[in-house]
Amino acid sequence: MIRVCALSELDNRKPFAASVDDVDVVLVRDGERVHALADLCSHAAVSLSEGEVSRKGIECWLHGSCFDLETGKPSSLPATEPVDVYAVDIRDGDVFVDVTATTN
User: Fold this and answer.
1) Mean pLDDT computed over every residue of the chain
2) How far apart are CA 69 and CA 45, in angstroms?
3) Is residue 79 within 8 Å of residue 51, measured between CB atoms?
4) pLDDT over 70 for what percent of the chain?
5) Structurally, how many domains does the chain consist of?
6) Calpha distance 31→59 (Å, rounded)
7) Domain that holds residue 30
8) I need a surface site. Which of 6, 36, 72, 79 has the fewest CB within 10 A?
């Protein structure tokens, strides 16, 4: 696990781009939980961190595919392949991500 940021640096339901061991990730805070996904839409290869977060997940700004924050699975076309979801741990107010452990 690698420390990425302080939990206080994350705005609720606003994407936050980070690089963890040369892997681009997008963090999304949802209350006291934090989700970490690959920061690359599986359809168009653009950054998901530039999209918006809704109740359905994170939406790609280019074509509107939406990815579930828990599973990385797309809930809308044109994407059909999931994005990687990474393990997150919050310790002493800091957010740690393990890009070697995908949860999907």
Assistant:
1) 95
2) 18
3) no
4) 99
5) 1
6) 19
7) 2-102
8) 6
The sheet with strand 16-20 has its strands ordered as: 2-6, 94-102, 85-91, 33-38, 23-30, 16-20
Residue listed under structure tokens 């705005």: 11
| Token digits of residue 47 | 């950054």
Tens of pLDDT, residue by residue over 2-39, are: 999 999 999 999 999 999 999 999 999 999 899 999 99
Output the domain CATH number for residue 28.
Answer: 2.102.10.10
102 — pLDDT class (breaks 50, 70, 90)? confident
CA distances from 63 to 3, 30, 34, 56 (A): 32, 24, 25, 15
Structure tokens at 67: 């990815």
Question: CA 15: distance to chain centroid?
Answer: 7
39 neighbors 20 (Cβ within 8 angstroms): no
pTM of the predicted model as reported, rounded to 2 decimal places: 0.94
